[in-house]
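Per reviewer request, we include the raw input and output of the structure prediction for the construct analysed in the revised manuscript.
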Amino acid sequence: MIIRIFKWMLGILFIGVVGLTAILYFGAYHPRSIEHVPIISPTTSPKLRSGQSLKMMSWNVQYMAGTNYVFWYEGGSDIKPSQEDIQQSTQEVAQVIIRENPDIILLQEVDQGAARSYYKDQIESLLAYLPAEYTSLSSAFYWKAFFVPHPKIWGSVGTKLSVISKYQINGAIRHQLAHIDKKVQNWYDPISFWLEKQFHLKRAVLELSFPLESGENFIVYNTHLTAYPGKGSTVLTRQVSEIKKLLSEKDQGGISWVLGGDLNLLPPGVSSKGLQLTEGEFYNPNSEIKPLFEQYTVFPKPQKGIDPSTQFTYIPNLLSKKVADRTLDYFFVSPGIRLDSAQVLQKNAKNISDHYPIIIQITLPDRE
């Protein structure tokens, strides 16, 4: 009798473990290495032209949370922003976009269906404030789960890379990037690592194809790389290598491209010792971004005679005084594209996000 009860209890426990494992696995996000993602782009939208001048913006909008908080994952105690602050930040992001009038906008940390941002589609909310000429868009998730059992999250997550454009888009691809390192994260048993991996961010590159009137395509890449992976981690080296491979393939095919986003890496040769927080210890002294700096035109880039602080793009929320102290966001452009002007929009985008937007004006190659 005792053996029968024991077997019955063991069977129930087994079914419970299997059921919970299935719920955790199927409730999380498991993207393929390459996926085609949906686009919205009316055929009536204008096409780009060879030799055209183009203004582009890249901005990590921090899920429209604003800068009135120090969140738990930053070392603070705040769990999530208020709905009022999210709405205000969305309006302020829209005002900056309207004032700067970029042709193509690359956004990182845009939420959709996340508990922390009240399950809203933030691109839909932003578009409601933008002019009708922004007709085309595409997005790709890099954090998504039906339910995350972390006490500070305890609900769904959904964060995207998004691109909004005045010009026609004819294709979008999501490229999965390298994942977290097991040994660096101090996960000494496979169960802990498996559980963490289900809900960890799945970093990616969103590739958009813009048709030119000449019949060629112009490619735009949007990305957001891993933050603070830990000492000894190789994940950022692998992610940069994967991006470099994508860019090299386009170079070999003679296809023009621009890459923008939050790369979470300091410029080569810039020391992390001057940072205002102890976060500096997480940065590699030999920045993993160096191969891209060596091969391509980039902004921002440290130069003699230019005050480094004018190129800082990140403002730690943990600081009582909101002052930018490092460069983490970049634009890279392919050979043949002329970089006419560039700026970090510090003055006109304060207290909206923990990142400043960066803007470039380029001229596409004239191949007609």
